[in-house]
């Protein structure tokens, strides 16, 4: 099948939920992917912030392969040495008051779980969320997603939520004073789809204080920022605070669908059997992928390397564009003009990057183990393409 035939068949049978790139991928290795025509791309989009170790990282692939020969799956009705190992490993990296976990299969499911746990724990019903925040497309997660076009068609069925500007402590305080029914404040610490928007660390501290004062659970959606991508396992460590619940997904399984909720000791103590569940959550093959991913990140000091990558990209790209921001390997590059033509030109030149809801911002989500040579190749192609298009 040639590329056009593949596109035609997918489009004929899949419901049209996605805006797609006009390429079909055949394989990936490290920072690179190859399309079915044999063209090679340097992948700084990471399959949508998913591949922390690049494509097919050998240690993760080996762990998955070995597990597939032992047992593919059994549900949480039994114990598993792999799930035990994964839970112990992953909680060892979590903030010290969040030493319990719930494994699931995606970011949206992790967020729904966190929202549900917050409601059960507090006995309250409503959610306070941020304008422009993104937490997923399922009804529960959509209830906290502050993007009007996604929410508007479903307002009649979404659980109650109110939205405030990201960064305004005054608005957060006002909302909490006006309602005694708020169970949780949920936010992306770095709003990614919004164009890599982050607040001063003092904001997160003040939110933490407000949440404690009003008896509200603070949920950090670290579906993108988590698993070391921003330089620490949880970005909350960089702000010096401890949320009550943290969700992670994307990078966790190096491409296998896995999500996790880190749960505070107090909230964990309020949960009993039957309150929640997922057939596939904590499945053995997923657990093998998570262990392989996390052990590689730790053994190879890749959280530090993510910071090195960030520093080099900021230094090299800043003179050519309006702004380069973000932490570790979750970055936004703001140009003076809409970046759509730049994204296409980069693809033509063999580089994949991400877009965002800000038309002038490109997102970079390279692997945290990107070698310095590949980084320099990216910088070279990016700066040349920007100059040719005069978008900066
Ligand atoms: C911050 C954030 N939260 C939640 C989600 C939803 O994750 P998933 O697509 O795995 O359900 C995403 C997806 O892009 C995300 O970026």
Question: Can you give a write-up of this model?
Answer:
The chain has helices at residues 3-13, 46-49, 58-70, 81-93, 107-122, 139-142, 148-151, 169-178, 201-214, 236-239, 265-268, 284-299, 302-317, 340-348, 372-389, and strands at 25-29, 32-35, 40-43, 100-104, 126-130, 161-164, 182-187, 190-191, 197-198, 217-221, 245-248, 259-263, 323-327, 330-334, 351-352, 361-364. The model has no long low-confidence stretch (mean pLDDT 97). α8 (169-178) runs parallel beside α9 (201-214). It is globular. It folds into two domains: 3-57 and 301-389, Alpha-Beta Complex (Aspartate Aminotransferase, domain 1); 59-299, 3-Layer(aba) Sandwich (Aspartate Aminotransferase, domain 2). By secondary structure, it is α/β, with parallel strands linked by helices. Pyridoxal-5'-phosphate (PLP) binds at residues 106-108, 111, 134-136, 188, 192, 221, 223-224, 249.
């Amino acid at each position: 099948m040639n590329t056009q035939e593949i596109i035609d068949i997918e489009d004929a049978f899949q419901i049209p939920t996605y805006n797609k790139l006009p390429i079909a991928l055949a394989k990936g290795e490290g920072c690179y992917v190859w399309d079915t025509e044999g063209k090679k791309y340097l992948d700084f989009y990471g399959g949508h912030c998913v591949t922390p170790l690049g494509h097919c990282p050998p240690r993760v692939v080996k762990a998955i392969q070995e597990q597939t020969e032992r047992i593919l799956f059994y549900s949480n009705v039994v114990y598993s040495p792999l799930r035990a190992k994964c839970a112990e490993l992953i909680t060892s990296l979590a903030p010290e008051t969040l030493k319990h976990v719930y494994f699931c299969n995606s970011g949206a499911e992790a967020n729904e779980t966190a929202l549900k746990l917050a409601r059960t724990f507090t006995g309250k019903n409503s959610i306070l969320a941020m304008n422009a925040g993104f937490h997923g497309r399922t009804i529960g997660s959509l209830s906290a997603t502050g993007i009007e076009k996604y929410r508007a068609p479903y307002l009649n069925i979404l659980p109650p939520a109110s939205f405030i500007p990201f960064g305004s402590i005054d608005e957060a305080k006002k909302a909490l004073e006006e309602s005694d029914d708020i169970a949780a404040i949920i936010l992306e610490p770095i709003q990614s789809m919004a164009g890599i928007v982050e607040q001063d660390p003092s904001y997160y501290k003040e939110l933490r204080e407000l949440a404690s004062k009003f008896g509200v659970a603070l949920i950090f959606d670290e579906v993108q920022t988590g698993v070391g991508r921003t330089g620490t396992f949880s970005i909350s460590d960089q702000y010096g605070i401890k949320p009550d619940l943290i969700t992670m997904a994307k990078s966790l399984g190096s491409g296998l669908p896995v999500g996790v909720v880190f749960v505070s000791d107090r909230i964990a103590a309020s949960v009993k059997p039957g309150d929640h569940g997922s057939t596939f959550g904590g499945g053995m093959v997923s657990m093998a992928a998570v262990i392989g991913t996390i052990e590689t990140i730790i053994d190879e000091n890749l959280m530090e390397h993510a910071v090195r990558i960030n520093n080099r990209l900021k230094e090299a790209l800043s003179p050519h564009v309006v702004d380069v921001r973000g932490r570790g390997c979750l970055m936004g590059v703001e140009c003076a003009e809409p970046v759509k033509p730049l994204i296409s030109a980069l693809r033509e030149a063999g580089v994949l990057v991400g877009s965002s809801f800000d038309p002038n911002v490109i997102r970079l989500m390279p692997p945290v183990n990107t070698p310095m040579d590949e980084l320099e190749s990216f910088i070279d192609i990016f700066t040349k393409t920007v100059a040719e298009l005069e978008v900066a």
